Amino acid sequence: QPKRKAAFGSVGRRIPYRILHVINQDGESLGNMHRAEALRLMDEHGLKLVLLRENVEPPVYRLMTGQQIHEEQLKRAEKKKASPKPGVVQKELSFSSAIAKNDLEIKTKQIAQWIEKKHHVKVTIRQAK
C-alpha cells in the first residue's frame, strides 16, 4: 500500500503504480501509459508529475510546471480556508426585506447572541414581492 501524500505537490520520480492515466499541462488526456513512459515525457518537456486522484484505477497524474503547481496549492489553501472548521458552529438566518420592525429587532438580538457565543453567522435577505 503506497503512502498517502498529505500535501499537494510534485511526486518526482517515485511513482508506486505501474500504469498511470496521464493528463498534459493543458488539461488534455494522454491516456493510460506505463510509469517509464510518463517519466520520459516528464523529462522531455521539463515538467513535473503530480498525483491528482489515486482512488481510481488507474491513478490520475498530471504533467505540470512549477508555476501551475504553485497556483493549484494556492487554490486548495483558499478552498480549505473558506470551508467551515470542525467545531465551529455556523448559524444561518434568512428573512424578507419587508420584515416588520419588531421581528427585525428580535432577529438582530438573536444574531448578537450567536456572535457572543463565537458562532459564525450567515444572514440572507430576500427581496419582498
Overall description:
This protein has 129 residues and is α/β, with parallel strands linked by helices. The chain has two domains: 19-82, Ubiquitin-like (UB roll); 90-126, Translation initiation factor 3 (IF-3), C-terminal domain (Translation Initiation Factor IF3, 2-Layer Sandwich). The protein is built from three helices and six strands. The strands form two sheets. Strands 2-1-4-3 form a four-stranded mixed β-sheet. It has a two-stranded parallel ribbon with strand order 5-6. Strand 5, helix 3 and strand 6 (120-126) form a beta-alpha-beta unit. 10% of the residues are buried.
Key structural traits:
Translation Initiation Factor IF3, 34% helix, alpha/beta, Ubiquitin-like (UB roll), 3 helices, four-stranded mixed β-sheet, 129 residues, 2 domains, two-stranded parallel ribbon, single chain
Short description:
This protein is of the alpha/beta class.
Number of extended strands = 6
The order of strands across the largest sheet is: 2-1-4-3
Q: Report the total helices.
A: 3
Low-confidence spans: 1-6
- Mean pLDDT, as a whole number? 82
SSE order, one letter for each helix or strand: EEHEEHEHE
What is the overall shape?
A: elongated
> What percentage of the residues does DSSP assign to strands (E)?
25-35%
Tally of domains? 2
Assign a percent range to the helix content. Answer: 25-40%
Name of the CATH homologous superfamily of the largest domain = Translation initiation factor 3 (IF-3), N-terminal domain
Q: Let me know the largest β-sheet.
A: 4 strands, mixed
Q: Which structural class do the helices and strands define?
A: alpha/beta
CATH class annotation of the largest domain: Alpha Beta
From the alpha carbons, calculate the radius of gyration and give it in angstroms: 24 Å
CATH architecture of the largest domain: Roll
Pfam families: IF3_N
Organism: Machaerirhynchus nigripectus
GO cellular component, one term: mitochondrion
GO molecular function, one term: translation initiation factor activity
